[in-house]
Amino acid sequence: MLSNIGISLVVLVLILSFLIIYTASLDLKTSNKVIKKNIYKLSLFQITFTVLSFFTLIIGFINSDFSLINVYENSHTAKPFFYKIAGTWGNHEGSLLLWVNILVIFSYLFLVFNHKHDKKFRLYTLIFQNILILGFLFFLLLNSNPFNSIYPIPLEGLGLNPILQDPALAIHPPLLYVGFVGCSIYFSAALASLLSDYGGRLFAQSIKIWVKISWVFQTLGIIVGSIWAYYELGWGGFWFWDPVENASLLPWFAITALMHSLIVLEKRNTLYHWVIILCLSTFTLSVTGTFLVRSGILNSVHTFASDPSRGIYILLFLSFMIFSALTIFFLKHKKETYNFNLRSRETFILSNNWFMAFFLVTVLIGMLYPIFLDVLTDEKISVGPPFFNIVIIPLVVPFMVLMAIGPKFGWIKSQKKIYNRILLLALNAIVINLLIFYFFGKYSLLSNLIFIAAIFLILYSILDIKKFFNNKNKTELPRIISHLGFGLLVFFIGLNHQFSLEEDFNLKVGEIKKINNYKINFEEIKIKESKNYKAVIGNFKLTNFDNNFVQYLNPEIRIYSNPETLTYEAAIKTKITSDFYLTMSNVSRSDYYNIKFQKKQFMIWIWISALMIALGGFMQLILKKNED
Amino acid sequence: MLTKKVKNRILFLTFVFLLSIVALLFIIKSLNKNILYFSSPTEINQREDISFGKAMRVGGMVKKGSITINQKNIQFIVTDFENEILISYSGTVPNLFAEEKGVVAEGRLSDKNFFIADRILAKHDEKYMPPEIKEIIEKNAK
Fold this sequence. Notes:
heterodimer, A: 4-stranded antiparallel β-sheet, about 65% helix, B: alpha+beta, 5-stranded mixed β-barrel
């Protein structure tokens, strides 16, 4: 029943996409200044049916309708209500439907909210966006249909992997999807802009808001994923250079570069082609990431059961996208003159793009090199986290310095004398760094430089905030918040890295372990029965000799029943200055428990500063609205 | 005679070009330093040119009944059903680490039969099998 409704709705959307493309191409030839009413109507129908199809699937999950293979494979009647809903997008087919939903929603919103812009440009955007929609709809129907039915109807589902049953992970995919798939609209708009000759400043204004929206969502999505990995995977860190994390970073670098160069295009009407390239590559990279993850070429934390046929379809579609985009670009691009003065804001913004390009290339090479080598020589290799750390971290130092002073330069040619201020703040940063170095411990030259650059950026941003309170120039504030957030992020990651304590050991119940000035007493274990799992809970007493501070930590080993899975729940106690983190595991039922203890400095501040970066982008969205 | 503007531009482009070459060389050099080669116990046994100091990965199945554990570390035997290697590890093991399950260990060889691991990888899906191990098993376990 639901299967038929769902498939009919999807087919309706498919037909509507064809109709929209057809009517839009007809409308292109007329000389009217406004878009025909029936295109709006068709788009409205399209968005309605798409959203309805998604709700149909959600209803299937809520009612545990196991006549749908997708529900059968990914849900279970005993699953909490909230995770039944979240299960809708916790699997490949459902998330693809979400993907199509976002494509359609952005297509509609772009059509409705850009009425000030050129008709031809809007129509072309609509056409390209609908070609994308068609591409993914065919993929959905032919290869990954969430509405496929199963007969006879099973009585019980297989259940959702328990590590995915988590609030952070329930919102992580939708956030990332809005971020990644939202890029599609300016992919289409970029091609439309080339074809309709609607470039420059106006083009920048038409896509600005969409770039910001998808940037905010991407940033938030990555942060939420990282928070989840921290407390759920039990690895005790927040970033692992895991192939999937890398895949999410690639479009983020591109979109961050785009967000910056878009300002130049809007204010100075230059860099048009570079902006187009960034628009095209952001979405291309999003799809590439999806391709690598879903096809099983990159295996990682994300365990969508992989299937090579998916990979082939996405790869074909991706090649088609890239090929047609490049063709249009080379046929339509025009000569552009660049006139940059070294001491101008645009040069500094461009330098942001160089860094982003460098980071992007690094991550891309680290990710793809093992795949190439495997194909070419059959040699199995992997690229470890040290590679990314060695290449990227040193570059963060000049990057932060430029981030601090860049926004101080005016457009075109700056006359302001700011060298005194730079010198003064740099001196302050060096002194603060030396104090940390002297009182709290020794670290390498590179770490020194990173701390100095981070503090420099923080001080600069704080001065900027002070200025903001004097003259209330609203447009600067979001930028300051984001840049300050980045400075703080690097600063706290640095402190976290330098001053954290980590120890792995094995203990029997009743034994005691001493680490520096801490004593860990493994007092007892308890068994707890819960609704859909059984837990072994350890009771650890942590004592600090110096101040007799006592803290109890209770990590768990959970045995879920459907599907039968073992998970470790870390015990995390968050304090303002540090997190205590303890995981416990058991190997082949021996008396020894395998324990990882960490005291992680300033963890909470890492999350807060990362969220500040996203907040800056969010404020831009809000403040912009007030101005209009 | 080139104008000053053209000259500046050429200078700038050369500079950018050289900079990107340097950046690329830097990336590739660090990449080569940080590659981890994957070997099966049989490959370790047979290869003559194996380097003992360098970080690498070893994978196979955890042999049944081979896991021993004490205060400091965990030891177990990894087998590809032809050859075996003893692995010693002090750290936390992932939740899918178990006897007769696939495992990948990252670390250094101390000799051809003994491997000191600093990281153990076993994936987060009960169905998942690292491709390297799947290949080994398909070859040997017939």
